[in-house]
Amino acid sequence: MSNANIPTGIGRRKVLGGAAAAVAGAAALAACGSDDSSESSTTASAAESSGDGGVLPDAASIAVGGGVVMDLVKTVVTHPADGEYKAFSAVCTHKGCTVSDVTDNEIICPCHNSKFSASDGSVIEGPATEPLASRPVSVADGKITLG
């Protein structure tokens, strides 16, 4: 009796199917990513790597009406008015993407263009229907501290 007709190992179809699934998964993850501006990215990276619980390097580096997204701690810090700083979860309440930018007092989610208020995290424009969760923030000696 010969073993020539008994299949062994993984078949070509399974290998190709697995490769197609891996490519589709990578594309889906890339679509949920964000393209932060270099200014926001630089500020956030410095804050995240500081090792002191999320202290931003300088409150003055955030323009009034703007903000910075801190990817590692999933937090967005905003500067809605002179001398006023707010912090919110950076996770969009619509589908869980990370918000990417704060412009003109609006926190923007790149996945489906939901917009949130930089003052209170409320929804300005959907498809999100729930506000961003508020996080504690304080300012001392020109430094913003989360928590």
From TrEMBL:
Iron-sulfur subunit of the cytochrome bc1 complex, an essential component of the respiratory electron transport chain required for ATP synthesis. The bc1 complex catalyzes the oxidation of menaquinol and the reduction of cytochrome c in the respiratory chain. The bc1 complex operates through a Q-cycle mechanism that couples electron transfer to generation of the proton gradient that drives ATP synthesis. Coiled coil: none annotated. Keywords: 2Fe-2S, Disulfide bond, Iron, Iron-sulfur, Metal-binding, Signal. The keyword Signal applies. One of its GO terms (cellular component) is membrane. Residues 55-146 form the Rieske domain. It comes from Gordonia mangrovi. SUPFAM superfamilies: ISP domain. It comes from the Bacteria. Its cofactor is [2Fe-2S] cluster. Residues 1-30 form the signal peptide. Residues 35-56 are annotated as: Disordered. This is Cytochrome bc1 complex Rieske iron-sulfur subunit.
